[in-house]
Amino acid sequence: MPDNVIVRLVPLPVVVKGVTIPSDDGYYNIYINCSYSVEMQNEILQHELRHVANEELQSFYIIKSLLGSDVNLNRITYKDTVSYFSVLLDKKVTRWICRIYLKENIKYVIIPNGESQEKFVLNDISDIYNLVTQLKNRLSELIK
Predict the structure, then answer these.
(1) What residues have CB less than 8 Å from 59, skipping those under 6 apart?
(2) What is the DSSP-derived secondary structure letter of residue 90?
(3) Where are the beta strands (DSSP E) in 14-131?
């Protein structure tokens, strides 16, 4: 396990298996629902560790920082799926700002643009900073 990860077993609502929250000091706090079996807790931990390793949360916080001047930061959330990582407005899957795909051989972001979707290949996670205009345009569409 990485040195910058702290894992805690805590009571959570049964629908919440686990959550990872990065701190300002570079640590990742992983909270695992203690009501699940040890085997399931280990699976949940492995899932949460992938968030840290796959740069999903780093991507989320880059996007959140880019959009923070346009909307209250609490309105920007995320949802993890098996295939992609969505950045959402108001916790609504129908109001997605972008989808992040971080696979072993390719990384890219999909941003809706009107009736179509644009795909932006990333060489590095920091390339998301170059998408500020597209992200702000998408946010504007959602908050009209």
Answers:
(1) 85, 100, 102, 109, 125, 128
(2) T
(3) 18-22, 28-33, 76-80, 85-89, 92-102, 107-113, 116-122
Question: For residue 135, what are its two tokens?
Answer: 């992200």
pTM of the model: 0.71
Closest CA to 34 of 4, 7, 59, 73: 7
Are residues 40 and 63 in contact, defined by beta-carbon separation less than 8 angstroms?
no
Query: Per-residue pLDDT for 82 more than 80?
Result: no
With bands split at pLDDT 50, 70 and 90, how would you rate the model's confidence at 54? low
In a 13 Å sphere around the CA of 144, the CA atoms on its Cβ side amount to 7
> Cβ(59)–Cβ(78) under 8 Å?
no
- The per-residue b/e assignment along 85-95, b for 16 or more CB within 10 angstroms, e otherwise, is bbbbbeeeeeb
Between residues 144 and 34, the one the model is more confident about: 34
Q: Average of pLDDT values for 49-54?
A: 78
Taking the mean position of all CA atoms in its chain, how far away is CA 71?
17
